[in-house]
Amino acid sequence: MTSLLEVKDLTMRFGGLTAVDTLNFKVEKGTIHGLIGPNGAGKTTTFNMISGFYTPSAGEVLLRGENIAGLPMHEVARRGVVRTFQHSTLFAELTVLENALVGTHMPFRPNLFAAIFGWDKDARNGAEARAREALTFFGLADVGHEHAGDLSHGHQRALGMAVAYASHPDIVLLDEPFTGMNPEETKHMMGLMKQLCSDGITILLVEHDMQAIMGLCDNITCMSFGKFLAEGGPAEIRNHPAVIEAYLGGARHVA
Amino acid sequence: MRNIFIWTVIAAILFALPNLLSFSQQEVLVFLTINILVVASYRLLTLTGEWSLGHVVIMGVGAYASAMLTKSSGLYVPLGIVMGGVVAGLTALALSYPLFRMKGFYFLIGSFAAGEIIRLLWKRFREPFGGTKGIKGIDPMPDFSVGFYDFDFFEPTSYFYFSAIVVAICLWILWRIEKSPIGLTFQAVHWQDKLAQASGVNLRAYRTLAFVIASGFAGIAGALLAHYIGTINPNSFDVEVMVFVLTWAIVGGTSTFYGPILGCVVLTILNEVVLRELGLEQTRPLIYGLILILSILFMPNGLESIVQKFTRQKERRSLRPEEAK
Amino acid sequence: MIELLAQTGLNAVYAASYISLVAVGLVLIFGVMGVINFAHGELFMAGAYVVVALYAQRFVPFFIAVAAGLVFVGLLGLLMERALFRPLRDNPLGGLVASIGFLMILQALAVMGFGVRMEYIPPVTQEVIAFSDKVRLPISRLYVIIAAVVMLSLLWYFLKRTRFGWALRASAQDPQAAALQGISVTLTAKIAMFIGAGFAGLAGALTAPLVSVNPYMGHSIIVTAFIVIIVGGVGSLEGAVLASIVYAFVHTFVTTFYDGVIADITGLMLMLIVLIVKPTGLFGSADRA
């Protein structure tokens, strides 16, 4: 059986620097998979290659066996792989509801002539219902009319996920979803992610918050200096000598 | 119900308006009506965050297309005007392949270059474009009667009514597009193109769509102009006109649908009516330039920001009684 | 035929000289201030009118009039910096519009002061270097070439070898980092505006006796300058000079062998192709889009 997502010999070179070097790992359907490693390990670069933001220098990204490496980002998204971005990458000038509505672009594709003549009432209602559903799920139903740029940091992170969730993804790539959240928010968000997972959405995440990673993930891939280091369940990774070495030897202290 | 009332009043004012004006002011009114469509269509493109310097040339493409089609093949003028829009839209589609390899500043300059090339082609090829002298004796709109009103298109008033109806329909379509999921997607492309793309939006397709629609309506505006003034040449659509469109949009503000229209109306009245009436013919560009600088310095968000401030105050005032309960 | 080629080549060198003076100024302003100065062509025009006012009407020696043109237009640049670009530092589109407003004011002032008709400027010198019967270089054109070479060399020395030049380049690359390094953004902006505008004024003043001086002469030079800075790469001064030479040769030769409009089209096509293939320009690497 093929995995939902498989990364094969993935390599990214920037000039003379190899940011990711022949990386291999598999993400199984219905699991939460963590990608960890010290700063500069190439996690975000890996994310960018999977989501189509970068074209890999070499290697393959297999989605249900199909190679999607090098496809433009919207083509990757249309195949069910939807990502969030680091920091608060949102449509800050639009309202929270409008942000979520953009997320419904794929399930409810706009049509020019229907839009002019008002024949798209069903689609618009459907999109709005879906957007509100996504906002409610992430606890943003009350702030729908506010500008996304005015939200608190934790709410902005949640909205980033709501936009991704609104598009009915098969697999979401979360880039440091807990950054800027207080412990309570983190805990709440972890609960939501588990719920997403039990709804059949596969999650791949990059995160620095070790407690969150350990409490959340079924499987963890650890990388260091662009290379694969170790893989396994949380307990295995926690006690893996190479992982401990990488974190203690690296610049960043394990949180 | 209240809306219908407001629109009826506006229609009545527009109907009465030309009768209150002098002949030359009536002419200005026709140009103003056409320019409103130019600047409103320009805004649709700016929704995606791209600023073109070729919009006026594209408008000229519509003018040339309609003028040539009605002249050579005897096409009915209203159909020619529609075809002007179609040809302008198709031209934009063709231009979008090279132009949308660029963004931002590069698109601005690229669109300028593409526009200048088109203008130079008109200049260089007397067949079929008429060279520097352009096209003269363009068919006027044929007169017709709608029972209660006889359209006589040598009268600016008649042409004002006709163009006002055409422009109103176009504005309605532009408004519908802006307020639709398509308009929202345009804005998404503007504010965070990467996030929009991650949501499955094909950026290039949407940029092209906005460019083609905006150009199509600019083409209709150009055709309206051509059949009114009866003669067009490459200099009717040069950078100076583009600069005017740009300043209308920026002085008016581009965050609302009415902002650019407001800018167009206010600056046109200022430039064509007030300064002319004051007898400041020679210093007109000087004062216009000063106004431009002052408005961008002291009103960076455009005239619309003043309107927004006003309406917000009104909203607050109307809220107060309820709070008191 | 060879003589025709040689003569056209000389014409191209002359064109490259004044184009590069204008274009380098435009690049300098864009690099340091991040503003596209639409009024740059009118600064060129203003330089030409200084020569009209001083040399043609008041019989001031030509080179003093030219120097006055440089200084006067440089001061106009400082005025633009203070009145327009400094308050609009965070609003590049606003800077563009303001420069359009300034353009209209300069044009209107020229019309009011001198009228719209073409100005007659007596030739500075009738002397010609004759390489052969058909290959001739008027001395007045040689002045332009020499001035361009000298001024651009001075600028190059200033930018690469002095502390001010270093500060200027630093703030062109990264204004915030430069400010953190203790470089005064306002001071570098002033220097860039004075030099950038002054060069345009110099070019206008020097070429005044050789072209038709009128209030709308800035139009064609600004189009040329845009093409040149795009082809050369928007942030690159060396690129602007090289692109000026490329453009001047292409344009002059096409004008000689076909006609002026085809030459204009060729120039614009050249720019479009560069934009499509390498949007950062032939010689540029910094992306400021």
UniProtKB/TrEMBL annotation, chain A:
The keyword Secreted does not apply. GO terms for molecular function: ATP binding; ATP hydrolysis activity. Keywords: ATP-binding, Nucleotide-binding, Transport. PROSITE patterns: ABC_TRANSPORTER_2. Residues 5-250 form the ABC transporter domain. Signal peptide: none annotated. InterPro entries: AAA+_ATPase, ABC_AA/LPS_Transport, ABC_transporter-like_ATP-bd, BCA_ABC_TP_C, P-loop_NTPase. GO terms for cellular component: plasma membrane. Pfam families: ABC_tran, BCA_ABC_TP_C. It comes from the Bacteria. This is ABC transporter ATP-binding protein.
From TrEMBL, chain C:
It is found in: Cell membrane. The chain crosses the membrane at residues 12-39, 59-80, 92-116, 142-159, 191-211, 217-250, 257-277. It holds the Pfam family BPD_transp_2. Its main location: membrane. Keywords: Amino-acid transport, Cell membrane, Membrane, Transmembrane, Transmembrane helix, Transport. One of its GO terms (cellular component) is plasma membrane. GO terms for molecular function: transmembrane transporter activity. GO terms for biological process: amino acid transport. It is a multi-pass membrane protein. Belongs to the binding-protein-dependent transport system permease family. LivHM subfamily. This is Branched-chain amino acid ABC transporter permease. It comes from Pontibaca salina.
